[in-house]
Structures
1.
Amino acid sequence: MSPRRGFRHPGSFGSSLPERGLLLLVLIVLLQGSLLPFGAASSPDVGHRDEADVHAEAEEKHNFTKKPFPVLSFEYKHIQVPFEISLWVLLASLMKLGFHLIPRLPGIVPESCLLILVGLLVGGLIKLAGQKVPPVLDSNLFFFCLLPPIILDAGYFLPIRPFMENLGTILMFAVVGTLWNAFFIGGLLYAVCQIQPNNPSDLHSLELLPCLLFGSIISAVDPVAVLAVFEEIHINELLHILVFGESLLNDAVTVVLYHLFEEYSGVGSVTVIDGVLGVISFFVVALGGVLVGAIYGILAAFTSRFTSHTRVIEPLFVFVYSYMAYLSAEMFHLSGIMALIACGAVMRPYVEANISHKSHTTIKYFLKMWSSVSETLIFIFLGVATVDGQHNWNWTFVTVTVVLCLVARVIGVVGLTYVINKFRIVKLTTKDQFIVAYGGLRGAIAFSLGFLLDKRHFPLRNMFLTAIIIVIFFTVFVQGMTIKPLVDLLAVKKKQEAKRSINEEIHTQFLDHLLTGIEDICGHYGHHHWKDKLNRFNKKYVKKCLIAGERSKEPQLIAFYHKLEMKHAIELVESGGGAKLSSAIPSTVSMQNIQPKKPAPAKPEDRVLPKLSKSREEEIRKILRSNLQKTRQRLRSYNRHTLLADPYEDNFGEFLLKKQKMMALDKKIQDMNNYLTVPAAPPDSPTLCRARLASGRETDFNPTRQQKADTVGPDPQAYSMKPALDSVPTIQVDLASPQSPDSVNILDEFQRSEQAAAAEEGEDDGGLMMKAPTRPHERCNAGEMDAGTREKLSRCLSDPGPHAEDEDEDEPFLP
Amino acid sequence: QQQQQQQQRRHYEELAHKSGFSTEQIKNLHKRFRQLSGNKETISRANLDSIPALANNPIKKQIIDAFFDKRNQRQDDEVGSLEEIGLEQFLMVMSHFRPPAHKSGEEERQAARRQKLRFLFNMHDTDGDGIITLVEYRKELLSKSGAIGHQAAKAIADAAMLEVASTNAPHMAPDDFYEGITFEHFQQILKGLEMESRMHIRFLDVDTTTMRCGKATS
């Protein structure tokens, strides 16, 4: 958010005011809307009116013939439930929207705090209107609808490598740390309750087991709260995965402790055998959850192997299988969270290899959308539920709980780190420990668990709930708001945003092999060895079963390279439409600079004609298609079920999507500069342009190109976009690599199809303008891109001659 | 007998001083050394070549070469390769994979990082002229070409080289020639990888089986 505010200069401040006004208006309307339905739903005379309705209906039936047919009727009850759900979702989304529209605010207050405040406000308004607050944070709703999307999002995009590398530490914090917290808080709380002599009776009546139960509820770090806060502070990967991993994996401990204590607090005593059973149950719950998740994950991967003909429903499999994994785990009281995490993490590599690029994007967006709406709703509901709850405020209990939570967390982290550091290579510093301890936020899971408690067994349930809410508020507000300044103050290492370069990928893999080899020479089998074994097994058997076709044999490096290429292609397409991209001007280095100049006698094949590699070919094909599709897509009739069967339509959709992403792209230009690993140069320096052009070394002059350039040239807008074109040289990585004779055919084919495309486009000019009048400059972009492609092709075709500079002067359209 | 033991221990201490390993680690490594060499004083390429676990490693040849590379012996300026190595040389090569020291200052970290990167660099720079050329880079990738296609490997090497060139020398005249990756550029491109903490393996202190905290492999 902050970079975005950076772009917004003071002048535009005024323009955002009406937006906000509008938003406010919508909100007020919405609030009224959401109040009214509740009024209608819960007013005491509802039943009465119902009866009256029934009577009326009955009467209606009697004199059926007399009544005229109702042209317009009103029946709110019919749609009440879905309507109210939609209203809540709308409220959440609008709040999120509004939060980011207000300048400077996101920098100070975390979103979660603000959302809780909104929830409080909404709850208060509902109460003020004299209505009953709906039980929004109902446990079923929470655990079956709101939580899974967030966890799936976290599991599917879990950074496996750092997670696995730090698994020991994470497990230590998650299991031992949570146990310690639960027993420390529960035990001391019980002691405090017993100590005070002049205490009112209700605290004295508290027994040990409810205290421990309360401790186990309150001690678990909450993934939702952690995600919400940590995503905004951009902390380094290690700390993020430590805290976040802990919050995910402690679910198993919480589940077991919760069920154990809930079971026995009715009985009142726990024997040693129960304790042993509890330990066994922990392993069953945790490993069982992982197992269930893994099974569903493999099923999902296997299913996705066969979806190549029905691409539209591909994303659905991911969601449904994951949800079923969650439900199946919950059915056996296993850890649903761990099942979801395992399911997402297991299926991801295989599913990604099987599904189309677009389905992948869909999955990504859907997960992000669901999880962010869920998160927003959870925080709002937390606020609403606070207003709604019957509170039993007990100063001693609340204060002691908050203090104990803090103390237990600090002692736990420091003590455990002391042990862990003996085994770690990269030690956790004091700063790291502080952030880990301070980042232990509590959240809605604790509240929902507290909400589940049975009032008959726990007479002090309301007091528990109050204390839980206070702890949540304390961690989310105080810790959540201060953690960002503290991170800055302590100069904790931040996350590097830079994308991975090819070289880094190459050397990472090289290092993996090297370390495995050295371990083998040393003769002991460390985790590199086992990782290698696992990889080998995966490659040899699992991938063959789960991944369709050729891609199962594709090594990781190639996959990475393809991803990179895909990105390049997309960037190339997008750069056609984005004048802003001109700032991402690449360097003047091209393939010629790194190729050996003269054919070395030892390696004569280095100096043969350039060729298009398969991937390059694919890229060019893509570009051509995205130009062609403009004319083709009109001929196609819309078919809901074969959305992806048609490559042209497919690309058209993609093109539109890219258009929408342009806005986001502008923000990411900085990233992209990194990614292209090229410093930006001033866009219009003639010498630079010349040099760049020279680096292309066109000796072959392409007539179609000139023609095209002439038609495009006069258009001022297209002309100003020229710099964008220059991103071509960096992307052309392997044009100059040696070729085999058959590639000439491909080139010719391209040439032809391209000319055809140009011709077709020329014919269709008017029609296209009529079809999409709202996007006048998209056409120019297409033209631009065409020119870009042509330039590329001409470069491929040309044999780089020795006198490139001389030819420059002939170019009519470049300075 | 006792004198021999004494001598052995002194020998170990000397080695420990040179390589930075502890004497226990050296004892373990020596045991492995004897096992590999068949109780001889030196190890030859054939000895390492016959390690069964290494058979599947795609960069097996480079790894073995690294052991016989004079540049990795920490006696600078010597290029070339040895035919056989003794325990000391073996330990010297191994010492590149020591984990970083417990409490190390910024300078020590930089030094460790430089030294580790130098080891990697030497593995790529096969002819020892201080520059990784495109040909060498391609060859390194092609060594894995059992898995990667020949063409793809080339394309990737080219792309990677171009990336290095444009990072380190963004403005080149068309006639300039980027000869290859120098060590400085090599350091530059791998800046983000935190080599000093990543490039290490666990050397055993005690002779018993490994004692690691539960690392599941799911």
2.
Amino acid sequence: MTTADGQRNGHGDAGGETTVAGWGRVAVPGREVRRADLERATEDAVLTRGLARSYGDASLPPPSRPVVVASPLADRIVSFDRETGLLRAEAGLSLKEMNRLLLPRGWFTPVTPGTQFVTLGGMVAADVHGKNHHRAGCFGEHVTALKVRTGDGVVRECSPEREPDLFLATIGGMGLTGHVLEVECRLIRVPSPWIVCDSERVPDVDHYVEGLKEAGPRWPYTVGWIDCLSRGRNLGRGILQRGRFAEPDEAPRRAPTPLTRLRVPFECPEWVLGPWSVRAFNAAYYAAHGLDRKVRVVHPESFFYPLDAILDWNLLYGRRGFTQYQCVLPEAAGRGAARRFLELLTERGGASFLCVIKDCGPEGRGILSFPMKGISIALDVAIRDDTQSLVDALNELVLAEGGRVYLAKDSFTRAEHFRAMEPRLERFLEIRRRYDPDGRIRSAQSVRLFGDAP
Amino acid sequence: MRVVFVGATQGMGRALSRLLAERGDALFLLGRDEAELARSARDLEARAPAATTVGTAPLDLAGSAGFDAALTAADDALGGFDTVVVTAGLFATQEELEADPARLEELLTVNFTNTVLFCEAARKRLLARGGGTLAVFSSVAGDRGRKPVALYGATKAGLSHYLESLDHRYRAAGLATVCVKPGFVRTGMTEGLKAPPFAGEPVAVAHRVLAAILDRRPVVYAPAAWWWVMAIVRRLPRFVMRRVGF
Ligand SMILES: Cc1cc2nc3c(=O)[nH]c(=O)nc-3n(C[C@H](O)[C@H](O)[C@H](O)COP(=O)(O)OP(=O)(O)OC[C@H]3O[C@@H](n4cnc5c(N)ncnc54)[C@H](O)[C@@H]3O)c2cc1C
Ligand SMILES: NC(=O)c1ccc[n+]([C@@H]2O[C@H](COP(=O)([O-])OP(=O)(O)OC[C@H]3O[C@@H](n4cnc5c(N)ncnc54)[C@H](OP(=O)(O)O)[C@@H]3O)[C@@H](O)[C@H]2O)c1
């Protein structure tokens, strides 16, 4: 279902049978129930989700209990301290609303993913990271307390001091420790809502990773886009961006108004994002930047959320939908790891419209939190007959390099690969059993990866 | 504005009260569940441009007692209100209402009798101080007798009728009555119902209603497309209405 303001959330009712889907648009039979009274709505539920911006099956219910509670109507601020920036809110509050309301007042989320159509609950459950992971870590580092309904039905307040195991397992726990009802976190003060962005073309992936690591100590936000279809000498050429909030004297005096958005009106045929069009786009995008390094003051939305400019862009991927493959490769694997990854990708002919490489700082405190010191690579892959074997091959390389995949994006990883990547899983499952002895809370993803009851 | 608000806890009321709070209007909330009221009051305080307090008092439209006490509490807290907004209301499908007489009675009472009684109490206070604005949420369902909303629609037809008359009667005395007629809007009320074309979002509706309140417009359809839809539906001959399912 598409609602105004981009609150699309993969809820459809094609031909009588209702389906639910994540952002990748691969649907399963089931239903989403949006409720403002989250505490009551979760009494008997097996899973809660937010705006369904996770790509794969993390936000999808298990086959035998096909109803997922959706939180976006539970969006009240419980308290906001105007002096310290400590925010407590119901889990369905969207980042878009937080930004609209608080950025003009000088407060910003300490960590933001690449879209603002996410909820606080989703940011906690996936322990999201942003372009400042090397500086600020994941969102969970800034969370001070959570209110959770655990699988045993009890509503609990947890924090680093109070029921710390539950707190740490819930951060990055993909909703599998219980339903997050409220989130308390610390926002950061920004000097202005505008961004100073410094961008530069880089000729290949080695220079790219070098540039990323070099910029880290000096710039809070770094990110880049990679052309992963170019081969050989040009493999992984791209555009590297560094950013920081502008000081008041550098920025326009006015507050940035929300940018207008385009909408993809219908599901597109598969060639729209096929290899030829992607190659042409990538070449044009790379060329358009020009040779010179550019320093500009830009709108925060265009810096942090370039993809939000087009609502429902996931329709571009056509009927079969798409997946995002995101992995982190540890520093120990060496700087050549990115090149090895891209070589395997191009060898397998994996065309990707979007390929982003980010710098990651140390592992966070969430028990299943995704990032670790090294780099993260994310690419969108249109689903084709060979997608499973492509993901298998990438996963084998990631395993060999000592890395892991991001559950918020995943829908193809095999249980045996995941277990091999996740020595932390046992501890997580042990905590989960304590709070949910009957194994009630589960998702399509936990059925697939953790062996939960379908 | 100094606004008394009934129904700010959810749906369109939540969205509209937020717009008012963000403008810096003073608010006082009335409703049936004190814990919910307090939560909404804290949300609105956080959204206000400067630190402020949003007061609350109990008011349950299922009964007709306590309306004056609630309005007095609001008057005291606001130093005399000039605007009253009522978004509170119940909905149930025709099938549910036909099957459950108790539920039907509650809906008829809340949506019509007690809403009107509350409006009477509020309008007397406003008129006594030279007028103000009374904005009440009715529905497009009151514009025409239709199969799927015979009972709910009847409460809204009665309410729209009352609000129109009130506006004719007291406009000259300074009281503007705004009758809000939402079409299908995605709130908790309509969750689980199949959304028709032109379904709206609470925030967009709230913007439109706020503009109407500021302009003191007697009737506002929201989303706007429903004005056209209802202009046609109102004119359809009876034999057509008898056949169609909507
Ligand atoms: C364009 C785009 C860019 C993105 N960029 C980034 C990025 O840069 N960094 C990053 O880390 N992620 C990124 N993501 C992924 C996204 O941030 C996460 O998937 C996030 O969890 C989505 O939030 P949501 O509210 O939509 O949650 P959903 O997708 O609805 O749910 C995600 C998971 O959280 C759980 N969950 C949600 N709410 C609750 C709750 N109240 N209680 C318990 N469990 C809950 C769900 O069960 C599910 O397992 C991006 C996604 C998109 C579409
Ligand atoms: N949504 C639509 O599509 C639609 C279409 C046409 C007209 N309308 C009308 O628009 C208005 C708002 O609808 P909505 O969708 O925003 O509804 P909603 O989300 O269900 O909210 C209804 C509000 O009314 C309050 N309320 C209910 N019964 C009450 C009572 N007995 N006493 C006091 N308050 C009571 C509720 O308070 P609690 O928090 O205590 O429950 C809640 O704040 C209603 O009058 C509705 O009939 C809606």
